[in-house]
Amino acid sequence: MPKIKTRKAAAKRFKFTSKGKIKRGNASRRHLLESKSPSKKRHMGKDSMVSRADEARVRSMLPQ
């Protein structure tokens, strides 16, 4: 059996935690920041976890 290739676009966007969960960055942090509140911008700067509904799709793109 050949190895499964990693989708490089997904590898740049997602990282695994030590317990196997998948981290992701938040959207809407690139531009049009004047209208967003400071607390919203601050929370968007931190990483989030991928939802359970999308986890299987992301794992298929990132074989470990």
What does this structure look like?
There is one protein chain. It is elongated, with a radius of gyration of 15 Å. Helices cover 36% and strands 12% of the residues. A three-stranded antiparallel β-sheet has the order 1-2-3. It has a single domain, classed as Factor Xa Inhibitor (Irregular), CATH 4.10.410.60. The chain is α+β, with helices and mostly antiparallel strands and 64 residues long. The model has no long low-confidence stretch (mean pLDDT 95). It starts with 7 loop residues before the first helix and ends with a helix. It contains three helices and three strands; from the N terminus they run H-E-E-H-E-H.
Task: Label this structure with key terms.
64 residues, alpha+beta, Factor Xa Inhibitor, 3 strands, 12% strand, elongated
Estimated structural class: alpha+beta
Please state the overall shape, judged from the principal axes of the Cα atoms: elongated
Main sheet attributes: strand count, strand direction, barrel closure? 3 strands, antiparallel
How is the CATH topology named?
Factor Xa Inhibitor
Short recap of the structure:
It contains three helices and three strands; from the N terminus they run H-E-E-H-E-H. With 64 residues, it is α+β, with helices and mostly antiparallel strands.
Task: Please describe the topology of this protein.
Blueprint lengths: L7 H6 E3 L5 E3 L13 H7 L3 E2 L2 H10 L3
Antiparallel strand pairs: 1-2, 2-3
